[in-house]
Amino acid sequence: MTANVRLTRLRAHIDDDAPGGAQRIADMIVQRARDHGLGNATVLRGRSGHDSGSEPSDRPPADVEIVDVSDMLFGFVRELASLEGIGLVTLERVEELEAREHEQMISHMTRRLAE
User: Fold this and answer.
1) 85 close to 14: Cβ distance less than 8 angstroms
2) Nearest CA to 16 among 25, 3, 8?
3) pLDDT (0 to 100) of residue 55
């Protein structure tokens, strides 16, 4: 299987005690990502969580994932620094598969599970 495009995934953890709540900050990040021309932004809402050393909160945490080319994401990290309530931010290399390759991978895994 060959990769189409090498991309990077930015994941930003939003503190559950962020001003106005994690969901408000997540929505702001997605809007700013759109304004910067970034693609594939997703908000993952948690049911519960805690940062190291923090007490559990009754406010649900959230993570924002954005997948795009590295240069675009590195520039966007500066934008995140201006927001309160952003916790851990990570960058990770990912590979986009062509639709045909994705279907072949699913077919292969399905056959292996059936064995």
Assistant:
1) yes
2) 25
3) 63
- Token output for 71: 């240069």
Residue 46's identity, in one-letter code, is G
Q: Where are the domains of the chain?
A: 5-114
Mean pLDDT across the stretch 45-59?
Answer: 65
Torsion of CA 112, 97, 44, 9, to 10 degrees: 130
Q: What is the pLDDT of residues 93-106, one digit of tens each?
A: 988 776 666 677 77
In degrees, to the nearest 5, what angle opens at C-alpha 8 toward C-alphas 3 and 14?
Answer: 145
Average pLDDT value for residue range 37-54? 76
- CATH node for 5-114: 3.30.70.120
HEC readout, the chain: CCCCEEEEEEEEEECCCCCCCHHHHHHHHHHHHHHCCCCCEEEEECCCCCCCCCCCCCCCCEEEEEEECHHHHHHHHHHHHCCCCEEEEEEEEEEECCHHHHHHHHHHHHHHHHC
